[in-house]
Design goal:
The chain is α/β, with parallel strands linked by helices. The chain contains 24 helices and 21 strands.
Length: about 725
Amino acid sequence: MPPTPTYQRSRQLLATPLTHIRGVGPRLLQILEKAGLKTVEDALYHLPHRYEDRREMRRIAQLRDGRQEVFLGEVLASGETLTSRTRKRLYEVVVGDGSGQVSLKWFHYRKEWLKKRFPVGARAVFTGEVKRFGVVREIHHPDAELLGDKTLEQVMAEDPLNFGRILPVYHLTEGLSQKVARKIFKQIVDEYAPSAVSPIPADLLRRHQLPPLAEALRDCHWPENPSPDFDLDGGAGRSRSALVFDEFFFLELGLALKRRGVILEPGIAFAVTHKFTRPLAQMLPYRLTDAQRRVLGEIKADMMAPHPMNRLVQGDVGSGKTIVALMAALIAIENQAQVAVVAPTEILAEQHFLQFHNWLEKLGLRALLLSGSLGAREKAEAHARIRAGEVDLVVGTHAVLQEGVEFKRLGLGIIDEQHRFGVLQRGMLRHKGENPDILVMTATPIPRTLSLTLYGDLALSVIDELPPGRTPIQTRVFPESRRDEAYRLIRKELEQGRQAYLVYPLVDESEKSDLLAATSALEDLRGRIFPQYRIGLLHGRLKPQEKEAVMRAFKHREIDLLVATTVIEVGIDIPNASVMMVEHAERFGLAQLHQLRGRVGRGAQQSFCLLMQSQRCSEDGRRRLEVMAQTNDGFRIAEADLEIRGPGEFLGTRQAGLPDFRVANLLRDGRILELARTEAFRLAEDPAFLSDPHYAETRQALLDRWGSRLELAGIG
């Protein structure tokens, strides 16, 4: 047996282009590239999504409902037919083997091709999931291996790759059959999997009984002796776990070193004299909750330390993160340092500015809004004021991170709604000063597994308590047919002197869209539905001063009903508003619906959130609305959101600055993630890790996975 190659040699071999593989011609190469496969390594990590057990052929009479089964059958009848209920066309083939019969159905098909493929008398090995409808058993779109005039024994002898074993089933693009895919992947696995080397320390793998990388890859594609936890639908037990561990380990090792690097860097040790925080606390119309005070204590301790703070504050809608962030900002400002607040959208930046500058002005301090829509002269003026230190706090979008924005002395960076940003933005903000403290705020509760990957290098604070005297919001879903009922509920609240929001997905009716638009709805509401009430309009196209004027009027009860777009998603606090109606609610994401709902329920009275469901609501949309009606718990909603949309969608754009997952799944692999994190952080804390030759390959692998995103001078 040839010796195992070194990690470096392994990298070279796995980078072999697929053009070097026998049987991969230009047409096949095009199909593989369409699936994102260009190198041997890409192919090795393109794992089967399920398996077929062809070790045992069943008689048709023995087929089990709801299972993937393999059986030999002869075509007894073949032709086009109609479904009984909807009268849609389908192609049906009835096969038997003497013990019984089963119906095979195709709903998307080319008639002539199927007719030619399955004439009466043809024999084939069929594979598919058995479904039962009353007494009838059916298989939809099965795989079929035609025998021609050969016996089953002859076919099995000639084609041992596709019979008598557990077979991989791959996600394929059009033009590639399972049979061809298996042949290509088998060749790649046989020739190249033995070259795969994991630079995770061997003693660590042994401790957790994880097989080496080469064995894990081979076993995931072609399981020979599956372990007891092998699952035909899910994957190759321990072998898949080894690949998942490998991905999570290097992700968490990078995050651990980032945190360690931050801890070792010199930062600003702020002094806390309460010069501004005490007057602010006295001005607030409420007392801080115990959770807010606890989190503030954690932030204060970080800011007083001689190395940079790197902390995430997580809190559900309405838990009071903004005031905590403002208190942290005032600590930096009393130490003659500036603060930058970065929000993902102009609307959020404006809202933060309106809130912050209101309090800062009362304390004699200066805030500035830096948005992308500023003219060249205004922008130059703003940049000059920031550079000269004439501004204590700057609020803006990513415009704050751009070149040309220079601070006199940046002491604290606050990033809001961080999961819409990548890790890179945090680094960019850090370079705007000499290792300023970084505070990340998110109102989107994030499932623990996601927190450990997105924020693995941050210390975590959770504001897990809502201000006292709040009544849980009642959420109800209304189909279009019950619209009048929803209006009656709103009218009843308005009659009691309460206020209401009506939220629409768009500002103006667009030609292509059937969505109700805020501006056109306004006329109908004023003229026909709520003629006796004062109605205001708030949307993203208004100037900041106009928005502020509308919100002030709503706050002072000069407006009864506010028609708005999602401008109101975050940061607006009107305790007297007790009802919100969301049009086309299924078009919004769960996190966004949860944020919107958080605008009501801020007083002691019962509040309502009415979700209007349009007729064309998708299955996913229906599921989202059901979740909203069932729970007010932000973490439960986040979990459901992750289940419905999957991690990639949940995060919005792909996370800049995080290595990709090819095998790991954040929903099902949480246990392995925790394990990999524990081991990675333990290794990162070992003083020898950054210098000992024993870890040279592990360090190299880390650099390969993270590229330049690690920013660690002491590695490599």
